[in-house]
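2024-03-11 09:14:02 INFO receiving multi-entity request
2024-03-11 09:14:02 INFO entity count = two
2024-03-11 09:14:03 INFO echoing inputs for audit
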Amino acid sequence: MTIEQLEKRLGSLADRTLRYHYIIQLGRRLPPMPQELKTEENQVRGCMSPAWLAGGLEEGDPPVLRFVGDSESIIVKGLFAILAEVYNGQPPEEALAVDLSDIFDRLKLGEALSPNRRNGFYSMVEKIRRVAASLA
Amino acid sequence: MATSTSSSTERSATQAVVPRTEATSPLDVAAVRRDFPILDQTVDGKPLVYLDNAASSQKPRQVIDAISAYYLRDHANVHRGVHELARRATEAYESSRERVARWLNAGDPHELVWTRGTSEALNLVAFSIGQARVGHGDEIVISEMEHHSNLVPWQLLAERNGARLRYVGLTDDGQLDLDQLVALLGARIRVVSLPHVSNALGTINPVREIGALVREESDAVYVLDGAQGAPHLPVDVRELGCDFYAFSGHKMCGPTGMGALWGRKSLLEEMPPYQGGGEMIEHVQHDHSTWAEVPHKFEAGTPNIAGAVGMAAAVDYLEDVGLAAIHEHEMALTRAAMEGLGGVGGLRILGPAHPSARAGVVPFVIEGTSAQDLATMLDAQGIAVRAGHHCAQLVVDRFGLTATTRASFYLYNTVQEVERLVRGVETARRILLG
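2024-03-11 09:21:47 INFO inference complete, emitting structure
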């Protein structure tokens, strides 16, 4: 699914309950994160609920990023699913060039997320960018 | 006036749909709600249901007006001023102290020290009584029910003075284990500091009985954290048998950044100052200073004068409605919430089984969901609750959890709002569990 499709879908939903419902469904569709990757190193700091995120390069020309993640919060997991849509399949250099705040605004996440959740969301973004930078 | 019995067409229409539990309550909720303009708004198109009162209460127009009137007409710095506004500000500040002291049935208004809130009040006691009375090897008794405000200051004192912290544990239904308390009391105990009401469980503690035990079995100073007590229950400090009672304005319809510490005068006089500065001295010389009389000895710097005015207005308001009526109303809401939530699959309510043992606080968890997600889904439906450890980590640890979702009620909440909470939790559960 592209960001345009996500934007259209989230924009078509009448209220926050439905938007969260949709984000939660995105989280449910994620492939499970292997238990051995839920390490302290992969833990996302700044999330209210425990969350983990790990990424690596997938072979190809050029090689592209692939992230897996999980959280005890199904909403955080859904937010990670949105980030996985943005970053998975991108070469690291292009991933680093993504203007995430623009996407954040287009998906109207600011209206849906409390300040704490927003911090958690950007903690995930930071971690993704660190991984991307280390692989660039 | 909140307790007015005059009826308008609008109010009759509201009362017609009020369930029996509310009709028997002596509190006129519709009239009370008109005093709180903030409640009349929508969140994402749904009427706001504010159930985060244990964190902070809303303010009635009367309190907002009193603060505004003070700034519009009477403000200047307090004490020692010779001009008219300084006289008026001092009069407002000190008469507010008298008002709040009278509300607590304190013997002397000078026993009431203004603070920034409960946290500062407890830090003040821990620091100053610690200096005066707690030495190496002495013991301080607190409990696993504490808000961090009644835990960390004592931890700091214990570290500073080489004292030892002892904890009273909790029973499975969230009550203080009094047998443990009795076993702890002894010659080395210098302080017993406990919550009047638990913020994380809602438990109303038998503080009077505990006070009697403390007196019988020890020479300890008995401190009560009244942050969740004063807003919800009638408090008579002389009858409670405590030495200190700490509370906050913002949880009892008053302003933020304002609270008070009531203390026995002899103890306040014995204690050294907590902070130094203007207002708290008598004479200052190069090598030493002497202190102002109690309570000014503990009020360094220009105080929160408007905050004091707001506190007195909040006390006027609560007394007008009646604390006993407020408590009864909250019990009806708590009963309705516990009945309704009890029917939600996989939901577990923490704390005392009987609503009458709680002060309007209902914490819960749903198997397989995160407490934060639950609160987020309720917020999406216009219902404000809080999720987390509620600054009482030992409490959630005790019950094998990391967080709970907490609904907490106050005088302006209605049974219809409780019904919306229950329906909202059902919706949230359905979505979160898929």
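2024-03-11 09:21:48 INFO post-check: Chain A has a mean pLDDT of 92.
2024-03-11 09:21:48 INFO post-check: The helical segments of chain A are 3-12, 16-28, 74-87, 92-97, 100-106, 109-112, 115-135.
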